[in-house]
Specification:
The protein is of the alpha/beta class. It has six helices and eleven strands. Pathway: Cell wall biogenesis; peptidoglycan biosynthesis.
Length: 208
């Protein structure tokens, strides 16, 4: 897919790369970057993806919030995490569209609630996909496991596979961290379920 196509709908302040650049994949780990990839320079609590740009030898384009010091092609965006999520959705053809999407959020009870809803939908005749803490499932078949809410690229790849297999309803556990990190940006929930809110993760969020 061309870079210019992936940038549609993303808030961009500068493009120092050829819009016809053919994108093979989207990466957030500099060690995995290959020819034709976009590398998203994310800033964490202890690290910054920009510092690894000089180490990448592949033919790539950096997506970042500040002009790189390294000599490389780049795209400047307002929010690199949100851009990563939106471009992941575009890369996989906006796979959430055409399926009912149920997001289950809350401090406790997400897993059991998600499984209850998936069971009810299955009993009502829907082909159901499920993502969450206990793994990812298509029609009851486990197809992978990761964090409660997968990385944006992985999540959209999973939704792509679900849609290809005829799934028409997806139930997804969405963690508070995932919301904060824009992991599900570009995915519009048809139904959102809030189980409860308690004083967990104050080390991350700071206040209740």
């Amino acid at each position: 897919m061309r870079l210019s196509k992936l940038l549609e709908g993303v808030r961009v302040s500068a493009v120092c790369a050829d819009g016809n650049f053919e994108v093979n994949s989207l990466k957030i780990d500099s060690r995995e970057v290959g020819d034709g990839d976009l590398f998203f320079c994310m800033k964490g609590v202890r690290d910054d993806g920009n510092r690894y740009l000089p180490e990448i030898k592949a033919d790539f384009v950096a997506v970042t919030e500040c002009k790189p010091e390294a000599d490389c092609r780049y795209v400047l965006v307002d929010d690199v995490r949100r851009a990563y999520a939106l471009m992941s959705s575009s890369f996989w053809g906006h796979p959430a569209q055409g399926m009912k999407f149920v997001a289950v959020v809350g401090t406790n009870g997400k897993t059991s609630t998600a499984h209850y809803i998936a069971s009810l939908l299955s009993g009502a005749g829907f082909k159901v996909g499920l993502t969450g803490t206990e793994g990812h499932f298509i029609e009851g078949e486990k197809v992978g496991a990761s964090l409660t809410t997968p990385d944006s690229f992985e999540m959209n790849e999973l939704l792509f596979k679900m849609r290809a297999r005829g799934v028409d309803a997806v139930v997804s556990e969405v963690s508070a961290h995932a919301i904060s990190l824009c992991k599900t940006a570009g995915i519009v929930a048809d139904v959102a379920v809030l189980t409860n809110v308690s004083r967990d993760h104050l080390d991350y969020f700071g206040t209740f």
